[in-house]
Structure formats: C-alpha cells, structure tokens
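User: Predict the full complex structure for these chains.
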Amino acid sequence: SQQGEEDPQALSIQEGENATMNCSYKTSINNLQWYRQNSGRGLVHLILIRSNEREKHSGRLRVTLDTSKKSSSLLITASRAADTASYFCATASGGHKFYFGSGTKLNVKP
Amino acid sequence: DGGITQSPKYLFRKEGQNVTLSCEQNLNHDAMYWYRQDPGQGLRLIYYSQIVNDFQKGDIAEGYSVSREKKESFPLTVTSAQKNPTAFYLCASSIFLAGSRNEQYFGPGTRLTVT
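Assistant: Here is the predicted structure of the two-chain assembly.
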C-alpha cells in the first residue's frame, strides 16, 4: 500500500506557536496533497505539491516534499485556535485513486 | 453556489436493511468518489467513477453498490451484506482523476448508524 502516514498522531500547542506535521509514503507519487477536517465535517483541500516541487507556500502554510525520503511536512505558522482540526496527507500516483493517511489531530489552545 | 451535497447528515437503520446515501455535485466534475471514515482513522476508498455509467471498486467495496446514471449524482447503497456499516461516509469529486493537477472537493458527510 502507498498510503501516507502522518506523524505525530496528535499535537497540542499554544496559539501563536508553529505547528509541524509530517507525512511519509511508500511508493512514487505524482503529487501530494494536504487536507483539513474539522470535527464531523468533510475535508477541505489546503495545498497540492507536485513531485517535481520541493516547497510550496500558501498564506500561513508551508509544505515541503522530499521524494528521496518519501516524506512531506506541513508547517502552519502563527497558529490560531481556529486551526484546531485534523490534517491529512493524500497521495496520488497517476492511477485513479487517492490514498489518505490516518491524520494528525491538532489542538491549538487559546 | 457550487459544491457537493450529501443527504441526510445523520441516518439510522436497523440491521439487515439496505440504505442509500445521496451525493450530488454541481461542479461539473467528471470524477466522483465514496470514502468511509471510522473514528480516529483516515479515509478508505469504497468506489469511484470516472464518467457516467462507469464505476470502479475501491479498496473496501464489499457490501456496497453504486450507480452513476447522471454526471451530477453518485448514490451509494450500503447493503445488508456489509458487516460493519456504522461509519462516517464522505463523497468527493474532482476535475480529473488522480494525476498531475487535481484536488478533491468533499461533501459534508453522512453519519450512518446501524443497530
């Protein structure tokens, strides 16, 4: 299985701190995406990074991709209480499926 | 207002009954997907469809069935053969299938409880 796995499973930080979560996967990919899920809701796409890219920014989000290590990281800077959610990485390898990890549950304390 | 709708938000059924979950999108997306999410876990793919009247099994298709008679609609039936149907079900769509440029848009989910 090429399913991504996030690390840590849970993360608790104070508002204003940075949050970093990691994703590892097993096979070659076309792209890797990060999604956010608020409790009991659907997922929302945050950012996509292609296999030939190393870093990408979107607002307070920074994603890195290291294809040699088959890993990615998501950094949320200056976190807010509203960032409290679960974050998932998803990989796509050119087939017709996305593979989601089990997620990192982020709690940002006000 | 474009998006994906799923109904109902909560669904309760007795064991042994089939139940159909609705998924509609007005994003003009070709591809649609059904996922299952269990507490504290990631998403597992049940079925996906690239085009009208065509669909493919995902990783956990046993006990489920789908149809794709219209581009906008991709209903999922949870049959009595599904041994553990209680879960949160998410529908998604995308412009292209998994490839170099695509993201998935998700509906709000249906929480199914079977007793």
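The mean pLDDT of chain B is 91.
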